[in-house]
Amino acid sequence: MEKNIEKNIDKNRRNFLKILLFGGGAIVLGKVLGPTISKLIDGPSTETNFQNFKTVENKKGLTIFDKTGEEIFEIDNGASE
Predict the structure, then answer these.
(1) CA distance to 22, 28, 30, 34, per residue, from 19 (Å)
(2) pTM higher than 0.90, yes or no?
C-alpha cells in the first residue's frame, strides 16, 4: 500500500517539475526571441538623426525622440491591426 502512495507522489512530483521546466523554458525563450519577433512584425523602420532629436518611422507610425533617447511625440498611422 505504501509503495503505491510513493509511486503516485513520485509521479506527481515528476509531472510538476516537468511543467515547471517547460514553463521556465517558455519564459526564457520569449524573452530572448521577443525583440526579434517584434521587429519582424513592425516591419522596416527609417531613422533620421538631427542635432537635438531623432525621428523613427515604422509600420506603427512616426516617433520623435530627444537627444537623450526619451520619446517626445508619437503619431500613429491609424491602420487597424
Answers:
(1) 5, 14, 16, 22
(2) no
**Interatomic CA distance for residues 6 and 12, integer angstroms:** 10
pLDDT in tens, 34-59: 888 877 776 777 888 888 889 988 88
The neighbour count for residue 26, using CB atoms within 10 Å, is 10
In the block, residue with C-alpha cell 531623432: 54
The secondary structure element, H or E, covering residue 53 is strand 53-57
pLDDT, one tens digit per residue, over 57-78 is 888 888 999 888 899 999 888 7
| CB proximity list for 69: less than 8 A, separation 6 or greater | none
Nearest-angstrom CA–CA distance, 66 and 1: 71
